[in-house]
Amino acid sequence: MTPTLVRHHPAPAGSAPRVDRWARARDWSEIQERMLVPLYEAVYERLEVGPRTRLLGLGCGSGLALLMAASRGASVTGVEPCSPERLALARERLLPDAWDKRTRADTRLVGGPPRDAADAETPAYTLVTAFDPIGCLAGDTEGLGEMLDAATPLAGHGAPVVLASWGPPERCATAAVLRVAKKLAEPLRGTGSWRPAGRDDLEEVAEGSGLKPDGSGRVACPFGYAGVDSAVRGLLSTGLFDAAISATDQEQVDKELTEALHPYQRQDGTVWMPNVFRYLIARTP
Description:
Elements: H1 21-32, H2 37-46, E1 54-58, H3 64-71, E2 75-79, H4 84-94, H5 101-105, E3 107-110, E4 127-134, H6 140-151, E5 160-166, H7 174-185, H8 201-208, E6 212-220, E7 223-225, H9 228-236, H10 242-247, H11 250-261, E8 271-273, E9 276-283
Helix pairs in contact: 1-9, 2-3, 6-8, 7-11, 9-11
């Protein structure tokens, strides 16, 4: 909550908490990122992603969605302007020495804006994805719109653009836990505080960027963790609690987050939170 939810979301200017960014990126890669695998699979299956696909992944994080597309034969390019730590982990996943030269030549990772993902010799992309779900931070629709405005000119006419969001709060158990972030961040009243998803968030973003909605779907993406400690680390890695940490402190956020997770802890100690995510397929002009 992704990116990817769940990708790294910067706290308001001047209030960024002091955290170990590398540890956070590792927790994202090893714990949290996999929670959206059902979403990636559903989209790739519906759009028949394969060897003819040239995919541009916006906010690619540590690259799991790109890796899944590449395993289907797609040529993939990832853009990650917010977290150099996650991008470094994506390079480890997607550009290891063991891969053959042909595959590596078809894979690109960019740490700047979307325009850096194209040049005069780059063919148009056939698919653009923005899997980092909106509907979790105030102001996140504006940030997605800006990225789409820069990216969609790189795609061919009528190419699908996939956007994602959290489902209705009543269908997302994790929403109750994220309310802790909203409560603790209230003194800041900034764009870094949590907010519930709106029913038409995705359509409004798509239409604002000149895209034509062309289908949607919902996917169950339960968040499952080995224990409460793993759940806390995974959820903190999303960046959704950074504003709360800035407004209070790490110890208080850890304490209240742990307490909020107790209703979802099962007898064997694992944590299980059912969620539903929504995706929209839109088309470029």
